[in-house]
Amino acid sequence: MFYRIVSILIFVLLAPRFHAQEVDPPFGDPAFISPDARLEMVFNEGLALTESPAEGPDGMIYFSDITFTTSAGTDGIQAGHIWRYDPKTGETTIYRSPSGMSNGLKFDAQDRLIAAEGADQGGRRVTRTDMETGKAYIIAHEYEGRPFNAPNDVAIDERGRVYFSDPKYIGNESVEQPVMAVYRIDTDGSIHRIITDAGKPNGVVVSPDQQTLYVVSNDNGSIDLGKITLDIPVHKGRMALLAYDLHEDGSATFRSVLVDYLPEDGPDGLVVDVEGNLYVSERDVTRPGIAIRAPDGTEKAFIPTGVLPTNVGFGRGENSKILYITAGTGLYRIPVMKDGYHLPRE
Questions:
Q1: Cα separation of 304 and 70, whole Å?
Q2: CA angle at residue 307 from 124 to 125, to 5 degrees?
Q3: What is the largest CA-CA distance in the chain?
Q4: Which among 146, 170, 290, 292 would be 20 to 30 A from 314, CA to CA?
Q5: Confidence of residue 9 (pLDDT cuts 50, 70, 90)
Q6: How far is it, in rounded angstroms, from Cα 102 to Cα 122?
Q7: What does the alpha-carbon distance between residue 91 and residue 84 come to, in Å, rounded to a whole number?
Q8: CA angle, 237 as apex, 232 and 241 as ends, to 5°?
Q9: How far is C-alpha 5 from the geometric centre of its chain's CA atoms?
Q10: pTM to 2 decimals?
Q11: Per-residue pLDDT band at 230 (split at 50, 70, 90)
């Protein structure tokens, strides 16, 4: 998840809750999205900022709700929630609270929930939950003896290695890592810093052929939006969709800038379909929505969301052509033409 300046945060949190028919229809190559497809809101009650939808082994759609310590109510400060939406019944309930300000969520090949927990009184760690027992385990909480900044998004390769980004956008916590980076957690539990030249890394995803690691950079020029007011100028850094060669040993080498979004903001989370096309949550305030892009970054289609999107995730099985979207204070879905890519289940 990322933040720009106070005005954008206000836009996200206070944007009107719209009905799907009020949003412009998707457009582009009908091989990717039908012109008849429509965005549907499935839940938006009492949420602060939604993130990272992911279908679990039970068919439920899990997603993060990032609450802000600056928006404490009479009952106190919330530390985030993980919700789960049942596509069969339409019921949405709390799965975990507090969530440690969870952001990115993914399920591994063993159907365990991997969660990136951020700052602002969050866990600043990566956890793995056994969905059968409910037990959660910390798999990364520090590097070289220092806490992470604010783990943001996660990706998993077919060897079981976990990749996560570690930027900083909000919270009183100090920044103790010398760089905002992308890390890899190996199956033996060892942690490796593998990308240090992405700017301010945010969304991450591994291509289906396991040869590319895509990284979003969204450098908003601040490490604590809560302390930035409208009279404080900031300088945005890299706003881009980047491609890295992913090697057999799990290391990554910069390949190219696929899309440069400056002077507008860069994207947030992203996923891939089985053909390797990218579904990117693009947070340009003049054109918010999900861009469907070829592996080289070429835009193929676009799904307007009306409010700034944060992340995307595909359903599974018979729902593998359903794209779930988190945006503003809601969870949405829309049918697409390609099957989403998922790790082969063990």
A1: 29
A2: 5
A3: 53
A4: 170
A5: very low
A6: 7
A7: 8
A8: 140
A9: 19
A10: 0.93
A11: confident
